[in-house]
Design brief:
With 425 residues, this protein is α+β, with helices and mostly antiparallel strands. The protein folds into two domains: 247 residues, Bira Bifunctional Protein, Domain 2 (BirA Bifunctional Protein, domain 2, 2-Layer Sandwich); 91 residues, Anticodon-binding domain (Rossmann fold, 3-Layer(aba) Sandwich). The protein has an eight-stranded mixed beta sheet, sandwiched between helices. The chain has a five-stranded mixed beta sheet with strand order 13-12-14-15-16, with helices on both faces. Strand 15 and strand 16 form a beta hairpin. Helix 1 runs antiparallel to helix 5 and helix 5 runs parallel beside helix 10. The longest helix has 18 residues. The two termini are 47 Å apart. The structure holds adenosine-5'-triphosphate and magnesium ion.
Length: 425
């Protein structure tokens, strides 16, 4: 047989496909992150993969890298300006407002989501143009316990996956009482530094973001910069102290990181990031914070809110970095191997019955011989094989083979389902 190229097409730059068996790990990670939030009363929300560009330029911020450099935008045939969603919060809040979820008199509205996000970034390990997040948002309440709840749920999710080498960085960004004075003080300080033109522009639009600059040359100059924690008003201090106390009481360790910012006016108070130490420079596995002003920025009423988004791709990389293999249930428990036409029909019927009874069962398709069929059975990870030929059928039995021990015994055709259900426990 001549070898032909598999396909002319490849996954676009900065993207990758999830294929079995690795895809099972991604699914398990998504489920592990979702499990704690579901147990905490968060309801599932799904929004479109694209929105009006305007939602993100307002809801993420005109001065952020996401909006200025990373958005995939398009004009529809009808002339609408759309963007593939680069993040989840703005869309979720937009959808909650649109559905009037905040008007049920039952605040906070607690929502979780899971899906694909798109950013035009320079692809590298842990940084892709298509990636996957699970997120949670609690809309419409200002309560330190809510901030603490979300952080604890994320920590519990990571822990349930067996992750150990992650750290929680915590900060408070203050609020509209105390931040303006701090902002001015920081601008004064930054204007005295030797910075490139782009960064100087940032001083005017988004000075807090300069603190977050990853470049060593910038970080060196930031020694001695005024820190927000020394400028917090009493209310913000008390709020932050309560978040910290609740986290400590829950056994959640954190590190104060006064430079951790989300430098936009509608981000307030609590801000946090989870970093993993085995991931090199793409170390952030998740992040979030309070965004009390966002609702108003997108035309809604005042709805103080808090949320996070955890990166699925980087969480999977973190598992690898720690050498963690998730214990995933075998996708197939029973594998049926028919020998001959009559057995094929009978066993196929049995496979359907087993599946309907809840036993994960697969079948040797394609008229394979016994040897190849048994190879498929072993590869499937199934614990049991069901083998039947004409003589077995004449005797009203199938051979039940334990693929672990190699033992094989005949089982009456009619009792196969109940036997296998019992064997499953
Ligand atoms: P970074 O500083 O690494 O660019 P970010 O601050 O842009 O991260 P967020 O917007 O807070 O990230 O998104 C939350 C999480 O989503 C991140 O902590 C990360 O795990 C994941 N994430 C963000 N961008 C990407 C990407 N391009 N590829 C893979 N995962 C990503
Ligand atoms: Mg980024």
């Amino acid at each position: 047989m001549t070898k032909v190229s598999v396909s002319t097409f490849k996954a676009p730059k900065g993207t990758y496909d999830l294929t079995p068996p690795d895809s099972a790990v991604y699914l398990a990670v998504r489920e592990a992150i979702a499990a704690p939030v579901r147990r905490a009363g968060y309801g599932y929300i799904e929004t479109p993969g694209f929105e009006q560009v305007e939602l993100f330029s307002r809801g993420v911020g005109e001065s952020t890298d996401i909006v200025t450099k990373e958005m995939y935008t398009l004009t529809t045939r009808g002339g609408d300006q759309l963007a593939l969603r680069p993040e989840g919060t703005a869309s979720v809040l937009r959808a909650a407002l649109e559905a009037n979820l905040h008007k049920g008199g039952n605040l906070p509205v607690k929502l979780w989501y899971s899906g694909s996000y798109y950013r035009y970034e320079r692809p590298q390990a842990g940084r892709y143009r298509h990636f996957s997040q699970v997120g949670a948002e609690a809309i419409g309440a200002e309560d330190p316990a809510l901030d603490a709840e979300l952080i604890i749920l994320a920590v519990d999710a990571y822990k349930s996956l067996g992750l150990r080498n992650f750290r929680l960085l915590l900060n408070s960004l203050g609020d509209k009482e105390c931040r303006p004075a701090y902002r001015a003080a920081l601008q004064d300080f930054l204007r005295g530094l030797d910075l490139d033109e782009d960064t100087r522009r940032r001083i005017d639009i988004n000075p807090l973001r300069v603190l977050d600059d990853k470049r060593e040359s910038v970080q060196q100059q930031l020694v001695g910069a005024p820190m927000l924690r020394d400028h917090l008003c009493e209310a913000c201090k008390a709020y932050h102290e309560q978040v910290r106390e609740l986290l400590t009481a829950a056994g959640v360790a954190f590190e104060d990181d006064p430079k951790l910012v989300r430098g936009l006016d509608y981000y307030t108070r609590t801000t946090f990031e989870f970093v993993h130490d085995g991931l090199g420079s793409q170390s952030a596995v998740g992040g979030g914070g309070r965004y009390d002003g966002l609702s108003e920025m997108i035309g809604g009423p005042a709805l103080p809110s808090v949320g996070w988004a955890l990166g699925v791709d980087r969480t999977v990389l973190a598992l690898k970095a720690e050498g963690i293999e998730l214990e995933l249930p075998a996708p197939t428990q029973v594998f049926a191997v028919p020998l001959g036409e009559e057995a094929r029909t009978k066993l196929f019927g049995l496979v359907t019955e087993l599946r309907r009874a809840g036993v994960a069962t697969d079948f040797a398709f394609g008229g394979k011989g016994l040897k190849n069929a048994m190879k498929s059975a072993n590869r499937s990870g199934a614990r049991y094989a069901l083998v039947a030929g004409e003589r077995d059928l004449a005797d009203g039995v199938v051979q039940l083979k334990d693929l672990e021990s190699g033992e094989q015994r005949p089982v009456a055709f009619d009792t196969v389902v109940s036997e296998l259900l019992a064997a499953q426990g």
